[in-house]
Design a protein that fits this description.
13% strand; 14 strands; four-stranded antiparallel sheet; alpha+beta
Length: 458
């Protein structure tokens, strides 16, 4: 059942020739005349179920509405009337619509916490004109869950004004954060009103500290962890809810990270296939392996995701069950800080020979590099390299990439992954493989050491 048909005229409803087109058209005209609103119908049904926009419900209850319709001599026998905006009204993902959705949650939280009631539909539609029933259900469930988790009152909820831009400006302008969401994906903030002025001053003082931006970021994160623990300042990450139900409400990055005990590379899963096919392309464009995290399998890929000829690779993780909803691992926030602390570094695409400019010296370098790593084991696991002779494949790829951007991108990724093998080898020999896998896995979940704390609602 999909209530996504919003007729513009009674004549349009009659033209559908449904079993209840006549009465639906009468109801449309009555609602339009009295409240200047339309109705929403299920286009697959006989029009016996009719939704009247929620803004009408701000003015009258359903009993009063039905009485008004009956007074217009409309026979409601077999007709199910309810308040609702239907579905499909707000399915966009533009920055503007996202901001409207987050501000609607902010409004819901403010009103529900203060009154134990939800805001009027008119107030919501003023913020988010395309709101539909799915979003109304999401906003209601979010407000209830957030209010219950906070467990008190006297809070201001912020997005575009107040504490949220204050926090983010300090992170971006004073603490070396380049992308807000890579540091903290909070969409709104709740701050205890009685503490807000003090908190703002303390945040400003952290930004003004005489130290390196990275050190200030550590201070900022530590401060915000203390405030989320006391529930004086809470960043909240929001997602549209399935069927209007909150399935996850958990603190993220609320404490210092410890290596996971139950994390390991799945035996036989490491694949860096160097085989070349008849289309003059590599069989695969990535280094791939799988890890087990608490009994759940997580697939890991290292590759060029946009297909650029000398694009720097990224690591991405996908999983099932408890390990699902992962993503790309931030190089800046998770990978590089850890590698730098261990005197290691990734290889970037710009460090490789330019397409068409390879020399024999370049070829020898990467043939010798492969020979030095071909027997490497990561932990106790060997790497599957494929069956072809590497020097032969390399020379073919060098020729092919001049006319095939895909081959160029694949070759670039493979050579960058040679360095990844050396990184994993060095980390493994230091006895830090579980620690490194933890950094990568938590980085995919945006739970790296330099990430800010937030409450996730999903």
């Amino acid at each position: 059942m999909a209530f996504n048909y919003r007729p513009q005229t009674a004549k349009e409803i009659l033209s559908k020739k449904k079993a209840n087109s006549v009465v639906a058209a009468q109801i449309f005209e009555a609602v339009k005349s009295r409240y200047d609103e339309g109705i929403v119908l299920d286009p697959t049904g006989p029009f016996n179920k009719i939704k009247v926009p929620r803004v009408v419900g701000d003015k009258v209850n359903i009993t009063q509405l039905k009485a008004s319709l009956k007074n217009n001599k409309i026979d409601l026998s077999g007709i199910d009337i309810s308040f609702g905006n239907g579905s499909g009204g707000g399915s966009g993902t533009s920055a503007v619509e996202t901001a409207q959705q987050e501000n609607a949650t902010r409004l819901y939280c403010e009103v529900y916490m203060a009154t134990n009631k939800f805001p009027t539909a008119a107030a919501v539609e003023k913020i988010y004109p395309k709101v539909d029933d799915e979003w109304f259900a999401t906003f209601e469930a979010q407000a209830v869950a957030i209010t219950k988790w906070i467990g008190g009152s006297g809070y201001e909820f912020s997005r575009d004004e107040g504490i949220m831009p204050h926090v983010e400006n300090i992170a971006l302008k004073k603490c070396g954060v380049s992308t807000k969401d890579s540091w903290n994906p909070a969409d709104i903030y709740a701050v205890k009103k009685s503490k807000q002025e003090k908190i703002e001053k303390e945040l400003t003082a952290i930004g003004d500290m005489k130290m390196e931006p990275r050190a200030k970021l550590d201070e900022l994160n530590a401060y915000m962890r203390s405030k989320i623990a006391s529930k004086e300042l809470v960043g909240i990450s929001l997602k549209k809810l399935s069927k209007g139900k909150v399935n996850t409400i958990e603190l993220t990055n609320a404490s210092r990270k410890e290596p996971l005990k139950d994390i390991s590379i799945i035996p036989g899963s490491i694949n860096l296939n160097l085989d070349f096919n008849q289309s003059n392309q590599f069989e695969t464009g990535e280094m791939a392996f799988a890890i087990s995290v608490g009994g759940s399998n997580v697939a890991v890929q290292i590759r060029a995701f946009s297909g650029g000829v000398r694009e720097t690779t990224q690591m991405d993780m996908t999983g099932k069950g408890a390990a699902a909803k992962l993503g790309k691992v931030s190089a800046r926030e998770a990978i590089d800080p850890y590698l730098q602390a261990n005197t290691l570094a990734r290889r970037k695409g710009t460090e490789l020979p330019v397409v068409g400019s390879w020399t024999e010296r370049d070829i020898k370098k990467f043939v010798d590099e492969w020979k030095s790593i071909k027997d490497v084991k990561i932990g106790t696991e060997s790497i599957k390299w494929g069956k072809n002779d590497w020097e032969t494949t390399l020379r073919k790829a060098i020729m092919a990439e001049q006319n095939d951007a895909r081959t160029a991108s694949q070759l670039s990724a493979k050579l960058q992954c040679f360095q990844w093998v050396k990184i994993f080898d060095a980390i493994s020999k230091k006895g830090k493989l579980k620690e490194f896998l933890t950094v990568l896995y938590q980085g995919a979940k945006k739970e790296y050491e330099s990430a800010g704390p937030f409450l996730k609602i999903a």
